[in-house]
Amino acid sequence: MIEKVEQPTVNDGYRNFPMVPKVVFGKGSFDQLEQILAAERKDRAPFVFIVDDIFENQPSLVDRITLKFNDKLIFASTIEEPKTTQVDEIVKKIRTEYKELPSGIIGIGGGSILDLAKAVSIMLTNSGSASEYQGWDLVKKKAVYHVGIPTISGTGAEVSRTCVLTGPEKKLGINSDYTPFDQVILDPDLCMGVPKNQWFYTGMDCFIHCVESLQGTFLNAFSQSYGEKAYDLCVEIFLSDDLTAEEARAKLMMASWHGGMSIAYSQVGVAHALSYGLGYVLGTKHGIGNCIVFNHLEEFYPDGVKLFKQMMEKHDIDLPVGICSQLTDAQMETMIDTALGLEPLWENALGNNWRDIATREKLRELYLKM
Ligand SMILES: [Fe+2]
From CA 261, how far away is CA 281, in angstroms rounded? Predict the structure, then answer.
């Protein structure tokens, strides 16, 4: 009998995780992009801008992107969350059009676009399909230089070490040391004009990150320090009447950053696990999916859910109901499998014996409430 010996990885002890090395913050800072990119431009190698297609007819943003030489602008749809096939198509397009690897990839948009840009930059230097890298530490080669520029706040995608993709078999991120952006530009003015519901759902993604991190069993001083700050900012933004719109935009951008940093060294929990199930089977988007789920999680997060309901009421937000009532048995089983497959999330939320609490029956009962 030959015993298989697993090679230890750098993350077997305390996690040694990379952070975004360069960040610009401030209103109007988007205009510094050209100057920032100039230092990174390689001979004959273009910059490829991946921009949310909601901006396609908005000259206020697009006209401020300077394309030079053979630079390319790709408008990507976010009607659905990013798929591994969408990543593979963009990579193929870039490889067909250019002999050289791009100087860099710049993602401008919400969490979906930021994740798409991260995935494309990884797949330009790694062979095969993006679906082969969904998981933890499967990426072998350093990604192409990549820049993230959020236009809505809350997901934490601008700081995270993952890019969540829906693949043929699962909805799971490419978690790797090469995933985080090399540069982020935080310009709160880019978040002007976000529709109210979208603003709320995405902002609540941040609030839920904080609750799940702060209530989790993986909590430590690192996560707590970021999580508490982001939590307080969310309460101020969504429940006080003292902030101007401009202050609220700037604060939510920093809440998103801190919320993302908080889960980097801990984990999310029940809401995210169940929301991934909704996303995989019904295509429910992350922000609204988290809200639909969190609304029914009083037993796990009593204080957080109470505040969440106050925030919903204050901003007059409605959530869809009965979204799981028409599911077939097979769909329900897939949804439960997807949620329960996210073991670290459950372990963080409920401890080592999570399987005794998060039973298939319990999950079915929760889904049927939504
Ligand atoms: Fe999230």
Answer: 29
The rounded Å distance from CA 155 to ligand 1 centre is 5
**Chain centroid to CA 319: how far?**
21
Q: Which tens digit of pLDDT belongs to each residue from 34-67?
A: 999 999 999 999 999 999 999 999 999 999 999 9
Give the Å distance between the CA of 264 and the centre of ligand 1.
12
Tell me how far the alpha carbon of residue 29 lies from the centroid of ligand 1, in angstroms. 26
Judged on CB neighbours under 10 Å (0-12, 13-18, 19+), 353 is exposed
Distance 7 CA to ligand 1 centre (A): 31
Distance in Å, CA 13 to ligand 1 centroid: 25
Strand ranges across the sheet with 146-150: 23-25, 183-186, 146-150, 104-109, 47-52, 72-76
Q: Looking at the predicted structure, is the pLDDT value of residue 20 above 60?
A: yes
Query: E strand or H helix at 343, and its extent?
Result: helix 343-350
Question: Separation of 167 CA from ligand 1 center, angstroms?
Answer: 18
Task: Answer whether residue 11 shows pLDDT above 80.
Answer: no
Say how far apart CA 194 and CA 256 lie, in whole Å.
Answer: 15
How many A from CA of 214 to the centre of ligand 1? 14
Distance CA 26, CA 189 (A): 8
- Going 92 to 96 to 102 to 106, the CA torsion angle's sign is negative
Q: How far is the CA of 158 from the centre of ligand 1 (A)?
A: 12
Instruction: Please tell me whether residue 132 adopts helix, strand or coil conformation.
Output: helix
- Largest Cα separation within the chain, whole Å, is 69
What is residue 128's DSSP assignment?
S
| Three-state secondary structure call for residue 235 | helix
DSSP 264-318: HTS---HHHHHHHHHHHHH---HHHHHHHHHTT-TTT-HHHHHHHHHHHHHTT--
Rounded Cα–Cα distance for residues 312 and 354 (Å): 29
Confidence band of 312 (pLDDT split at 50, 70, 90): very high
